[in-house]
Amino acid sequence: MHLPYNLSKKILAWYDNNSRELPWRVSKKSPNKLYYRLLSEFMLQQTQVKTVLPYFKNFLLHFPTLKSLSKASEKKVLKLWEGLGYYRRAKNLLTTAKTLVEKYNSKLPYKVSDIKKLPGIGDYTANALLAFIYDQPTIAIDGNVKRVFSRILNINENLLDFNKIIEINRKQLFKGERHSDFVEALMEFGALICKPKEPQCSKCNIKKTCKYFNSDNKFKKIKKYKPQEKSYDIFCYINKVKNKIALTKKHNLGFLDNFYLPPIKLSKSKNKIKNWNFHSNFKNSISNKILNINLYYKYSSTLPIKSQWFSLKANNEFIPSFTKKVFKQFTNLN
Ligand code: SF4
């Protein structure tokens, strides 16, 4: 389980010449360092850098500091998050910002156990923040880091205990004084060089000591996690005269609660539903689920319980992109 003795030196040398300029990589002295790191870490969970960039910049236009975010309404934060998905992150970010401002005087706690008590922050983010903000000798183990270590050792990552590997190699991993840069550099190296599908071994400055590169017996690919797919029926009450649709926030499905949607239920059978017109079928990904949607509608001027009418044309209320997809289906309905 021993990593090459000069790994940190080599990775940092590569990083110094090849890192991307990203708006959250601000100077170590920047007063907004904690806020930018926090915001980017929340946005980057399950989301690619190129998708996050415009959201990050737009978010800062509305909330330029941690303090301004801590005073924001959940509605406004969710609006800015619209389209980025995994909305629980937005809610957790807001609660975390409030806690940091009110309880910790806008500072990051020093103990990993205290950081992990903040909503939406797990082991990875807590360690990343400790390194970025306090330059602590720690490694945030994300998918990139797992892949790099697993390839260097030529062992399937499912068989590795990464905390143990870090402990065993602690001396050589943290022998320099650039702990924050090293965490960033390892992740960047995984994203740009030791890529998931096509590792750029010819450009890699650690290939001499990489067991995957040098082995004729490379470990087998790790099976990709397949998101769950389930079928749901959506029931659209359309007020034809007013061109409105009934939406509710009460769905009893857990993961969709608090989002305006037409009534939605888990499909019980493949048969069409009595008294409803079948409109279409489409797929939508939400959180880690794939929703196979059967869309039904009926014309009605009576509002179902716990619902509100929404204009099928309005775009300025907080409507999740999933619901807008439903709206689109009805644009040409006669
Ligand atoms: S040589 Fe290839 S597999 Fe090994 S660390 Fe470099 S890019 Fe990854």
Fold blueprint:
Blueprint: H1 7-18, H2 33-44, H3 49-62, H4 66-70, H5 74-81, H6 88-104, H7 112-115, H8 123-134, H9 143-153, H10 162-168, H11 170-173, H12 179-192, H13 211-214, E1 228-239, E2 244-248, E3 264-266, E4 277-286, E5 289-299, E6 307-311, H14 321-329
Parallel strand pairs: 1-5
Antiparallel strand pairs: 1-2, 1-3, 2-6, 4-5
The structure holds iron/sulfur cluster (SF4).
Structural write-up:
Strand 1 and strand 2 (244-248) form a beta hairpin. By secondary structure, the chain is an alpha+beta fold. Helix content is 40%, strand content 14%. The chain is globular. Strands 1, 2, 3, 4, 5 and 6 form a six-stranded mixed β-sheet that branches. Helix 2 crosses helix 3. The site of iron/sulfur cluster has 14 residues, from helix 9 and helix 13.
